[in-house]
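Run log, item B.
One chain of 304 residues. Sequence copied directly from the ordering sheet:
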Amino acid sequence: MDAILSATVKPPLLRAGAQPAIAAGEDEFAAATELELISILQGPAFRGSRRSAAFLRFVVEETLAGRQDLLKERTVGAAVLGKAPGYDTGADSGVRVRANEVRRRLAVHYDTLAPRAGIRIELPPGSYAPKFMPLAAQLGPAARRGLAPPPMLLWQLAAPSLFAVFLVLIAIRGDVESNDSFSRFWNQALAGRTEIAIAVDADGPSSISSAMADAAMPIESLAGVFQVPVHIVAADRQVLAPRSCVIRMSIRQKPSAPPLLRLNGASVFRGEDGVALWLWADTADKLRSAAQTLASRAGFPEVQ
């Protein structure tokens, strides 16, 4: 193991104190889980959402530390989302919405990339404590008997390649091409702005519905692309910073002006009075689909 990771060189995203244990070979299963977590966080499914990445990292590290029994909704909300320690979990669904988003992103990750360290990380429904599944445990008995090397040797052999991939990802992450329609659109929308505020319909006097919060989440990926903070706020209930790029998302209020473009059943308008964009649709699902397109180069339309 010391040939793979020294006790002093710490790659990005590895939690403090982990590299000496990995170098010493103290717990190879935990080391494999650490490496798989890094692989997931550096992958495209999580790279664009700092909150989802922070959520997954927190629950994985707490479980590796033996504190999985403390992973309750209120605990996670306070530690990851900055909620007050005694907040009302019945009225605030932020942790549940974020957990569902993490499960969705994990599914997307493993739909496109196989586990890189011999471990698959899962977040079971109804739980905030992740499960760590060795690849051999997912095979049938006959298949396991046909494996000549023990399972941990497989991930050990793959670990040098895994770190090489990390170095490549770190070198290329964050690059934004300036000559495509995606960049031209967002460079114009963000001109002079220092953050993005996603203002969505409020559900009641002080909360955002889980459906609307879920619809807004794809736009969080722009935080990683443009290196600006992204916030989801209730429309008309929070004073926004003067230099915010405001993205208004609504299923209730529709602008009267002609739309700039139509995306997946939603309409995108140029905003007025400092509002950069306005997304309207008759359902939250259509809003989410449009937000996914706006936040991704894949399928982004050419805007005249």
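Observations after the first pass:
- The CA atoms of residues 1 and 25 lie 6 Å apart.
- The chain has two domains: 18-172, 181-294.
Flagged for discussion on Thursday.
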